[in-house]
Structure formats: C-alpha cells, structure tokens
Write a structure and sequence with these properties.
Elements lengths: L5 H26 L2 H8 L3 H7 L3 H23 L1 H10 L5 H17 L1 H8 L4 H15 L9 H20 L8 H11 L8
Helix pairs in contact: 1-2, 1-4, 1-6, 4-5, 4-8, 5-6, 5-9, 5-10, 6-7, 8-9
Length: about 190
C-alpha cells in the first residue's frame, strides 16, 4: 500500500474541517449526523474518523481551528475586525465562524463535559486580544485610564452581544456605527482632538 504524504493528510484534514464547519453551522451539533458530515465533506465516515476520533473530537478541532483563525485576525487587526467580519458574513469563513461560535456557546451552557474540555482550548482569543491591546497601549493609541484586562473583557462582551444579535436574525447593517463607537471608546484621546 503506497504511503500518503503529510501534505495529502493535511489537505484531507482541512477538507474535513471545512465541510464540517458548514454542516455544523447549518444543522447544529446534534443535526450534523455522520451521513450529513459525509455529504458536506465528500468523504466516507472511515476517512473522516481516520482523522478525528469521533464527532465530538471533530467539533472541538473545528472550534479550536476557528479560535486560532480569529486570534490571527485579532493579532493583526483587533477584535473589532472579527466582529466586522461576522457582520459582513460574505468572506471565506466569517459566516461559518458565527455558526461554530453559536454552537460552542450553546454547548457551554448545556454540556458540562464539553465546558471542561473547551476551557483548555478557549484562551487563544483572549490572549490575542490582550496582547494586541498591550501593543496599542505601548504605541500610545489606547486609553490609559482603564486597565487592559477591563478593555479585553469589554471587547469580549461586545463580541458576545454581536453574536447574539446575529443569532436572533436582527439586521447586521445597523451595527457598523456601534462598532465604530466601540473602537472610539478604546482609543486614547489626545488633548484638543475630542
């Protein structure tokens, strides 16, 4: 039997994650049956579960992958950009980030075992947000009358509000000025520029 290259294995894993992201976003965790996962990925259950032990492992890997991608956006552009991407919904993955984020939130509320497993993986976004805010403060761009931990919590709460707003099917286009205000709230105001 010929050996499969690591590039091929990585591409297959990415194919599974991309298809599963769409399936979980569309059907939720419970509705993402093995048959639906097969259809969404274009692969057999054997191929899917060769890479992931079970559906739970697949979902955790997907949620972690999304958290890493969001953390990358935060590191370069800030947490408000993640929120803007969620509002836009038309980019390569932000609309599906919303589906994954909603499913993670639901499972955190209803599944203590999932909550315990997710706690180990969920800090990427907070760490990236805090590090970006520290860099912004060092550059003199961030207000200095409020601690970085408070600003991090503020931005994370706004993110949860945006996610809830979108989950309720409310219009996204009215939130851009709100996100402008959030950014303005975190910025340092120089004397005479207010």
């Amino acid at each position: 039997m010929p050996r499969v290259s690591q590039d091929h294995l990585d591409a297959r894993r990415r194919q599974i994650l991309d298809g599963a992201r769409v399936c979980f976003a569309r059907h939720g965790y419970e509705g993402a049956t093995v048959r639906r996962l097969e259809e969404a990925t274009g692969l057999s259950r054997g191929a899917i579960f060769h890479h992931f032990r079970d559906k739970e492992s697949l979902f955790l890997a997907l949620a972690e992958d999304d958290a890493v991608r969001m953390a990358d956006v935060v590191a370069e552009q800030g947490l408000v950009q993640v929120m803007r991407d969620l509002l836009a919904g038309g980019s390569a993955h932000p609309a599906d980030w919303l589906g994954t984020r909603l499913e993670v939130s639901r499972r955190l509320r209803t599944d203590p075992d999932f909550r315990a497993r997710w706690a180990e993986r969920s800090q990427q976004l907070t760490i990236a947000t805090r590090q970006r805010l520290l860099r912004q403060r060092e550059a003199g761009n961030l207000r200095d009358d409020v601690g970085v931990d408070v600003l991090t919590a503020f931005l994370e709460l706004v993110l949860e509000g945006v996610v809830s707003h979108l989950a309720m099917g409310l219009p996204a286009d009215d939130l851009e000025p709100v996100l402008d205000l959030v950014e303005e709230t975190a910025r340092r105001h120089r004397t005479g520029t207010r």
